[in-house]
UniProtKB/TrEMBL annotation:
Magnesium is among the record's keywords: yes
Organism: Trinickia terrae
Record: residues binding substrate: 92-95, 114
A Pfam family reported for this protein in Swiss-Prot or TrEMBL: RraA-like
Name of the protein described by the UniProt record: Dimethylmenaquinone methyltransferase
Amino acid sequence: MSLASASPASTADFAARARALGSSTLYEASGLPCAVDPLVRTIWSGAFVAGPAYPLVCSPGDNLAIHIAMERVPRGSVLVVGTGNFVAGYWGEVLTVAAEAAGVVGLVIDGGVRDVAAIAARRFPVFARGISVRGTVKASAPSVGAPTIFTGVPVAEGDLVVADDDGVIIVPATEAGRTIAVGEVRAAKEAIMMQQLAQGASTLELMGLTEWRTHA
């Protein structure tokens, strides 16, 4: 079952558990090559989003696919927009307002955005490759809602997107539950480790790396 088809309560539970863990812990827990290009980063510090993906592809310098997606995207989704890494202002304050009205909870785009101050003021989570004042045309829409490859990571509607200050991951819907459960176990172990470190233990001891003391 994809997150998109889950009940609102289930989706909210996934998002809350993902927020508590963060993208780095969930990446390690997944055991999958699910990390997006690290150049795709938050445009304002502290942004966080977790939810089902809605993928689309824009032609370079053309944002028509985004406008079409606004009429099709399920509420609660994260837009994942491929642009072929072409940085232009595909997204700004107008689309942010439209997204909020459509129930979109965040944007991940391998291109650029603009109106950054306005987006930050609205606290709308945006993760982008860059910022650009250059506008876009509206002439083509290669793909809206269909599975695609985003910076080398497969993404389909309903996959779990988690994005924060550390970066962006996209976990297949079939692996989302397992990944969060493993992440919670990992986080619990790390909490114990940090308590032991605070009491004077060393990372070499706790990680079984004491043999390296003689190699330094």
